[in-house]
Amino acid sequence: MARAAEYGVFPVFRGLDGQLAVQPEMMFPSEEDARRAAEVFAGVLGGAVAFSRVTDQETGAVEEGVIIGRYGVMAEASSDAGRDAGARPPPPDAA
Predict the structure, then answer these.
(1) CA-CA distance, 94 to 67, in Å (whole number)?
(2) CB atoms closer than 10 angstroms to residue 94
(3) Which of 1, 35, 57, 91 is most exposed by smallest CB count within 10 Å?
């Protein structure tokens, strides 16, 4: 079973009326790249959530993702709800 960690971002657009719209996920080759992209999306669109997940490359099975960072309005919304705006560590790469 070939398992590998994947890293991605859900950009979140904040409209002029304050409405939030989640955009399609975008994948990145590393956690650092995903976090950096999320910061950029937050600056341009309003917010973003970076995540990691483990995928079995042979079967295509995908484990539940883990949030590794919230940015912009998503970090604000998280802290407003009393949740940790930080991140849990991503799962280790499995080869």
Answers:
(1) 18
(2) 12
(3) 1
